[in-house]
Amino acid sequence: MKARPRKRFLPLALCLLLAGCSDDAPQALGTLEYDRVALPAPVAERIVSIDVREGQRVEAGATLLTLERTRTEAQTQAALAQVLRQREALAELEAGPRREDIDQARANLNAAQAQARDASAYYARLQPLGQHQLVAAAEVDRARAAAGNAQAQVRAAQAALDELVHGTRAEQLAQGEAALQAAQAQAEAEQATLQKLDLVAPRAGRIDSIPYKLGDQAPVGAPLVVMLVGEAPHARVYVPEPIRADVAVGQRARVFVEGRAQALEGTVRMVRSEPTFTPYYALTGEDAARLSYLAEVQLAPGVDLPAGLPVRVEFAPAERRAEDTP
């Protein structure tokens, strides 16, 4: 039996591109693409307004959509209140104890000392009576315990007074400053999140897609708007393994776009080092090897073409590339 020829299903546009390929220049197939910027949802809030439409061109800083602000505003106010509380607590530590507190601690010490003198005198009177068994031994023991407890109260009152007189410790001030800095950082984070509820364009470009609609509540991190940015598109192509050694970053190339007879000039800006299997639409000629390397060819500024168009890229031969390199 005769072997049946292998069929390949290629898009019509790529077949037309293959018909015009030159045999002497290394080439690769792919599509025209733009750099994509995805704007994620900072919080899981409802979309209350959408100010752009898909395909619209916008300038940097233009408002794209707005999320509900009620919850985030409340969290921001709570964070600012916590900053105020920590600031006042630090000021209290820096000011130290009040004179009234010191006077109160000194009065407590005087009262404890008076009680200690009274308890000691009472024990001194009972002690000889107990030796002569004129009072019960238990009564003497209680008097001795009361005198000891009164002395302990004096020492506690003295320590409390010394603590106030010596003022705030340096470690307490450091803790107060750290708590204030933490509260300020949290407030800044909440304010930053509040500002992100108004999604703005980070760069000039075209709105590619708006996955969610008015009233939707996207999860945190989900892309709310996807933009196509850059002064010009780039060709995203697959370089066959046999010509990989002849393609390098900075090399000049000619980009043939479907629907345009004249080739566009471009420069190789990236070549992946990891190989991948060639997509079906990029298989050309006798495919001895299916491995290929993803590459990007940047077009010159001013080219305004839609993304997704099939392209064919011809790379400058080695001898020409050496001459073109400054």
From TrEMBL:
It comes from the Bacteria. Residues 77-188 form the YbhG-like alpha-helical hairpin domain. It is found in: Cell envelope. The keyword Coiled coil applies. Residues 1-24 form the signal peptide. PROSITE patterns: PROKAR_LIPOPROTEIN (PS51257). This is HlyD family efflux transporter periplasmic adaptor subunit.
